[in-house]
Design goal:
The protein is mainly alpha-helical and 134 residues long. It has helices at 12-25, 33-49, 53-56, 75-86, 106-113, 118-129; strands spanning 30-32, 65-66, 72-73, 90-91, 99-102. The chain has a three-stranded antiparallel β-sheet with strand order 1-5-4. Strands 2-3 form a two-stranded antiparallel ribbon. Strand 4 and strand 5 (99-102) form a beta hairpin.
């Protein structure tokens, strides 16, 4: 029997967990919840235009839907954010508040990031930089 070992696929949960850890490491503890999906979608589109297939594969578990009004949604990302709120990684002051607070310490962020290879960490650093203007 032939056993094939492959690197673990980056799930939507892994993707967002790693992104939030990277944002925490970059001292970004508050982000606009409404901007998250659009920023990630725009980043993915930029990687598609550059034919960066290694980075594009990191988005395999995340589905985006673009409406007629150019509004982009992702139920995958929203579900993961809800899960991460349950685990106390991120949170809001109240249900209607549009800002997400990242509650990870630097040590917790380091522990999360150590679970991912350098390529994933580098990509997340690039993506986290896109949140500077939001």
């Amino acid at each position: 029997m032939l056993t094939v070992l492959a690197e673990r696929e980056l799930t939507a949960y892994d993707f967002m967990r790693c992104l939030f850890a990277t944002l925490a490491k970059n001292k970004r503890s508050i982000i606009n919840k409404s901007a998250i999906v659009k920023v990630i979608y725009d980043f993915q589109e930029a990687m598609l235009r550059e034919n960066n297939h290694d980075v594009i594969s990191m988005f395999d578990d995340i589905e985006f839907r673009k409406g007629i009004d150019e509004n982009v949604v992702s139920y995958d990302i929203n579900e993961v954010i809800n899960n991460l709120q349950t685990f106390g990684v991120v949170g809001k002051l109240n249900p209607t508040y549009d800002k997400l607070f990242i509650y990870l310490t630097e040590q917790e962020a380091d522990e999360i990031l150590s679970q991912y290879n350098q390529e994933v960490q580098d990509t997340m650093s690039l993506l986290a930089g896109c949140f500077a203007g939001e």
